[in-house]
């Protein structure tokens, strides 16, 4: 591999963990390499505990915000911190540097904010195998016999919790411990990431409101709502913090964007065909929410009048049953939409791995990043 011979310079510590990284890295090993996942968990636990103390000083009633957030954070896969950290390592950043881990962990809070707001906008009942935050606040309202509309209370509380996560992600990133000049290099990407995610969320709402289906528009939605902030931007943030060269940052983009798109395409397939016990969401939730995904857009574009009618009456139906979901699945298979998406996932993943293979990436990121790509695009949950 062209970049495989590159090793950290003498000033950079070697791997600080008991699990040495071999040239062929498995998906689980990639997520756990250099002890990253438990390190991120410790950072988040300590940070949220400090915020809990601040909220407690305002009122004990605010502790529910921390309780709900803590459970949500505990079930994350840590993909975004992983791509950020390995973007740092691939640019020669020190292994296990606490400040770099804290910067990467801030992305988990940003992701939590996106999930909280997304669940409100989509009216989702579950997230990560448990009731979504707005439903949990709604249930507490009912259980305590409070006045007003329980659903409205739940929505408002979840939005506020999402806003807290946005503020806290910035606070954790800014206070990670890296010097100001270093932080400035990553801040530009961080700010762009936040702007583009909000824009992508609006495009998602707009596409559902239009009621049509366009593969091109659907891909634009996933690119800005999910793909960039899942892989490309975390890589660029980590690389920029470590002083990556323009050539390496370009390679990170060439790798990160296709992996991010393939990640979301896999999510779209799981949203219709996934096992609820593994995805943490009811089967067919994307259909009930009326999501105009690439998978759905392909089915509509290629379907017969009868097949389009099946999709049209099913999309956005909140009480869609098992029989109707089975008909939707049948249409998506028969039109070739599923096969097309699977081929696209494979093509994007291969394209990404070729880009990183040819890049000047420091070891062991040269081995870890392709494994993370496989984990992001071929997962079952």
In brief, what are we looking at here?
This protein has helices at residues 27-32, 36-58, 63-74, 79-90, 98-122, 133-143, 150-174, 180-210, 215-241, 246-273, 276-279, 285-288, 294-302, 305-314, 322-334, 337-357, 365-377; strands spanning 126-127, 130-131. With 381 residues, it is mostly helical.
The low-pLDDT segments are: 1-23
DSSP strand content: under 5%
Question: How would you sum up the global shape?
Answer: globular
The total beta strand count reads 2
Question: Structural class of the secondary structure composition?
Answer: mainly alpha
Separation, N- and C-terminal Cα atoms: 31 Å
**Biggest pleated sheet:** 2 strands, antiparallel
Number of domain units: 1
CATH topology: Farnesyl Diphosphate Synthase
Could you explain how this protein is built, in words?
The structure is a single chain. The protein has helices at 27-32, 36-58, 63-74, 79-90, 98-122, 133-143, 150-174, 180-210, 215-241, 246-273, 276-279, 285-288, 294-302, 305-314, 322-334, 337-357, 365-377, and strands at residues 126-127, 130-131. The protein is mainly alpha-helical and 381 residues long. The chain has one domain: Farnesyl Diphosphate Synthase (Orthogonal Bundle). A two-stranded antiparallel ribbon has the order 1-2. A hairpin with a 2-residue loop joins strand 1 (126-127) and strand 2 (130-131). It is globular and about 60 Å long.
